[in-house]
Amino acid sequence: MPEEWIEVTNTYNNMYQYKVALSNENIKQKVDHELANQMNNQMFMGLEQDTSQLSSDKVLSNDENKALQKKYLGYYSYKEVNRPFEAGYTFYIFKFDYLYNSFTVAGMAVNPEQTRVIYFLHTVQ
How far is residue 125's CA from residue 105's CA, in Å, rounded to a whole number? Predict the structure, then answer.
């Protein structure tokens, strides 16, 4: 039986790192920074690297992420969260199959409040 399920939220995946990586200005800054590092390393002087613009921790708004996903990906990518099945879920098995040293179970799980139905196809070797 499956141990967890995936909840797809209505929040778009963060596209900040893609926005920074794909911008021409960032590419120019990386090249300039690398050249400066090489020159400073030759003179045995350290140059502190500014990575604040490359951080993927910055979170864009949902509207900004939606626009960037449409522009760069051509589709929308939503945040997924793995959730464990709680003890109160009821499982219904539609099909149980054994083929080539693997078991396959098809069915559904219903939460205790009966407000969520999760269909699954689970294969184990």
Answer: 12
112 token code pair: 């205790």
**CB 82 within 8 Å of CB 73:** no
Q: Where are the alpha helices (DSSP H) in the chain?
A: 16-22, 24-42, 62-72
Q: Percent helix, strand and coil across the chain, each rounded to 5?
A: 30, 35, 35
Under a CB-based contact definition with an 8 Å cutoff, are residues 107 and 94 in contact?
A: yes
Query: In a structure prediction context, what are the per-residue pLDDT tens digits for the chain, which is 125 residues long?
Result: 777 788 888 888 777 767 666 665 555 565 556 656 655 655 444 344 444 444 445 777 888 888 888 887 788 888 888 888 888 899 998 988 888 888 888 999 998 999 989 898 888 88
Question: Could you give the 3-state DSSP secondary structure of residue 114?
Answer: coil
